[in-house]
Every structure is written in C-alpha cells, then in structure tokens.
Design goal:
The structure is a single chain. The chain has 3 domains: about 140 residues, Creatinase/prolidase N-terminal domain (Creatine Amidinohydrolase, Chain A, domain 1), CATH 3.40.350; about 140 residues, Creatine Amidinohydrolase, Chain A, domain 1 (3-Layer(aba) Sandwich), CATH 3.40.350; about 280 residues, Creatine Amidinohydrolase (Alpha-Beta Complex), CATH 3.90.230. It has 19 helices and 30 strands. GO terms for molecular function: metal ion binding; metalloaminopeptidase activity. InterPro entries: Creatin/AminoP/Spt16_N (IPR029149), Creatinase/aminopeptidase-like (IPR036005), Creatinase_N (IPR000587), Pept_M24 (IPR000994), Pept_M24B (IPR033740), Peptidase_M24_C (IPR032416), X-Pro_aminopeptidase_P (IPR050422). Pfam families: Creatinase_N, Creatinase_N_2, Peptidase_M24, Peptidase_M24_C. Keywords: Hydrolase, Metal-binding.
Amino acid sequence: MNINQRIDKLRELMNERNIDAYIIPTSDPHQSEYLADYYKTREFITGFTGSAGTALVTMNDALLWTDSRYFLQAEKELKNTEFSLMKIGVEGVDTLEDYLDKNVSEFGKIAFDGKTYSVKGYKNLSENMGARILVSDVDYISQIWDNRPELGKDKAWIMKEEYVGESLKEKLARLRTTMKMKSCDYTFIGAPEDICYLLNIRGNDVAYNPVLLSYMLISNDSASLCIDEDKLTAEVREYLESNDVKIYSYDSIYRLLKNISGKNRIYLDPERTNVAIYDSINANVKVSLGTNISILMKTIKTDTEIENVKKAYIKDGIALVKFFSWLEVGAKTGSLNELLASKKLHDLRSEDESYIEDSFETIAGYKENAAIVHYAPQATGSKTIRDEGMILVDSGAHYNEGTTDITRTVALGKLTDEEKTDYTLVLKSFLSLFLAKFKDKTNGQRLDAFAKFPLWQAGKDFFHGTGHGVGFVLTVHEGPQRIADRDNHQFVANMTSSIEPGLYIANSHGIRIENEAYVKKAFENEFGKFNQFETLTYVPIDTRPVKTEMLNRDELEWLNNYNKACFEKLSPYLEGHDLEYLKESCREI
C-alpha cells in the first residue's frame, strides 16, 4: 500500500467505531525519542522519516505537525500524499489541540493507542477537549501494517564498573534515598536508558541506542525488572539476581502495578509513562508525578565517566582527522558523494577495538543540503562532493569509554563572502559559550542567549536547540537540561552538553560547529560559585572560512589554543598525509 491507501484503510477502521480523529505520535510504550523500527508507526502512516512529529487523520484531513528542524524535509517527503504539513511554532498554524477543538464536534471521538501516548500528553489533551470522548485502547496501525519489522532479540551485556565508576547497588541506594525524601513507597521507571543506567547493563534493541526495552518497579526493599527474558544471558541473569534484582517477563509490569495495595504511594514521570501503564495502577494507590529520579542521577556524570569520555573523544578525533584528510583528496576527483562519505566515517570509527556502534545516523550535507538540519544522505540522490563550497558532517559513536557527538563544517574549495561571514558568525556563537563564566545553576535559557547574541546582532538566528545533554553509552540526547529558549533546567558541575550553534540558508548552505563539553567549576567568591564549559572534543575547527577581522582577541586566542591542543593530543596517533592534514588544520591564524 502507498501512503494514501494506508490513510484510506485507516479511515475504514475508524468508521467502524465512529472515530472522528486518530492521533499517531512519534513514540513507543517507553516514550522514547529514538524508536525501534517496530514502533515507527507515524513514519509508516505518513512517509515522513524525521525523528519528531505527530500525525492526525480525520475523515476529511491528514495532517503532520513537526518542528523547524524538519520543515524542508517534511515538505519533500509529504509531496504526493494527502498529508499536509503543520509547522509548529509558526504564527497562524493551529496546534494539534486547536485543530481538534475547531474540527471535532462536541461529543466526537478522538482515539489513540494508549500504550504509545504519555500521561502528560493525555492530560494536556483531556484538559482541552471538553465533552469530546477520548478513546485510548485503539491500535489501528497494527491492523494495517503488513510485514511489520520484528522487535530485536540481541543479548544484553554488562557495562563494567571501571567505565562508569558506580555499582548497581550504589545507584539503587542513592535512588531509594531520594524516594524516601519524596515519601514514596515505589517508583516506576519506563525509560530504557534510565534502567540500563541504573543496572549497568546495555543492549541492542534500538538502532544507535544501546538500550533494552524494559520496565522497572522499585520499592524500598525490592527491584523488579520486566524484560524479554530471552535477551538475558546466564551471565547477565546471574549478575542481576546476585544484586537482588528480580526478573519478570516484559508484560508482567501490568500485574505488578495492579498488585500494589492502596495504602502505598508510587512516584512516576508523566512524560515517560504511557496511559496504559498509568491505568493499570490500583485507583486507591496515591500517585506522585515528577521527573524520573534516575534522569537527574544519570545526567550528572561521575568523575570516572568524564575521564573515560575524554578518552573516547581522542579515539573519535583520530577517526575524524583521517576522514577529513581522505575527504579533501577525494573531493578533487569528483568520485565521492555524501553517502560514501558517511560510510567511510563509519568504517574509520569501527577500526577502534572499543567501538560499539554509531550514536546516530550521520548527517553529511554538501552545499545546499547542509541547510536541511537533520539531512541524511540516501542511496539515491546523494550529492556528488567536489572541491568547492562547504560540507557539514554531524556524527558520533558509542565506545566502551563513552558516547561522542560532533559537528564540523569544512571548506572544500572556494567560498563566497556570504559563506565566510556566516561561518564566522556561527564560530563566534560557539566561542561565546566556551569563553563564558556563568553562575552555578544558571538555566539553559540564559545560556542560549549567550550563544545567540553574535548572530542576533547580525539579524540572524537558528531554530534548533543550542545544546543537549549526552548520555554515557546510552542515548546521544539526554535530559533534562538543554541549552535552548524556554528551558529552565539548571546546569551544575559534571553535567555534559553539546554546544552546537548553526545557521541555515535554504537552497544555499548550512553551517554548524559542535563540541561536547562538561560543566566545570571556574571560581568562587563573595558573589557565589561560577562555572564554565570545558571541552571534551578535540577535532580541529576549520579556519579557512574565518574572517579574522570579525573575531576579537579572546576569540582568536581561544581558537588558536584549541587547534594547538588538537595537534598535541592527536598527532602521536597519525602519520603520512593524515598527519600533514592535521598540521595544516591546526596552524595558527
């Protein structure tokens, strides 16, 4: 079936139960950002392959809401389908709730699959829908998706304590201390990355994310893991049981929750708990809502994790210098394209014995394709790379020592004056955060303004986040902190974050420069504690597009010192043309 035929089939099923509107979020039973292929239901029904968006099908309309990162991509992928693009954040464009309020009658039925809809999303919907009926037990996609991909069956493995610096028992003890402070008898965790963090295990259930689809229910004296037990080797099972973790089948979570007696209180995260899970809790049990305790634990890295991530970035830096050295030569021949470049970078990273997998699909956008923020080259239509213009490469990997995420935009030949100006503005934005000193517990919104100030002065802006937390061999996007407009989460010591400002000119060029950094104490005085960002990433920043007259003394000094440090850290591992490329890339300007 093509997209429009899928819509027709969905409407037939909706008509059988008098459903007026059916919502398909980008989600799974764990409210994950990254999905196993089995759960890519929104992609199946729309054909849109971006990582964020919500689809809505009514008897008359088919709509897709997504954010500015994906406007260009969505317009391309929705072409020749019945779906219309609804641009989130654009003036005059209805939100999902506004559209439903205007187009579904007072007692109409709005349906969705409660296993893939968050408690927070449901509460927001119910507060805005008045007398309309919400039906949360409808999974229509399973009925129309033939040849649906299967869920993964790969085995779990143990993350050694030498990499993370804290044992399973120590983590559970810390979590239980916080539970007691919140006066809770139980906490439910539905986020696979949090569960893998707590238990020091990893898996392969989701591409680019070494996690295991599972649930946990933790009390003051017990810990229950609900998982497909076939994924547990004898070694992993023995490890868990020896640490007092009880193992149950994946769907046992509903029974365990139902069996909690009414005198107890359970704590859960409404953003990471689905409606079906919430509805299985005994009505007499008191429910406290808040951010997962484990999220706040794992986002502040141990000193051991920080030191290991530094090692991971040396490995990554070696691979990237080899890659850009290879790319420079290949661009002159006209024999390369974006997809070949992506594959080459993967191959170079995988040469390291501690490499696990890429941490996300590589973005390799040449010239105008770089203006598509989350562009990923495909087998057909991949652009030929030549010795002119710029290429943007955003990539990362998981190593035993940690997870990487880095973007470099490099010149492959002659650039326009506009490209050089834009590149230097993005560089100034990037440098503003690395030069900044900021009060302890400064929030992401304030840091975002630091970064965007140079662009704003030139009347320019970008519309994605400036930075996100990075997991430790987990998900490359990790919260709760972000450097972004309207983000109020506070930054404290040993939190990690990407710093990745950009600028995108449609049909012309795109620029992004990204390092990962961690928050480090700068100094303390009578006015309080002050922090700064310390880089973890060491890959030369291309200086060929830089207009030095646009940089002040501090910016130029930081840039030259950084590239000098890149040479010192990476040169012992390189030779031949790769070493010459590094030397030229790190020369002082």
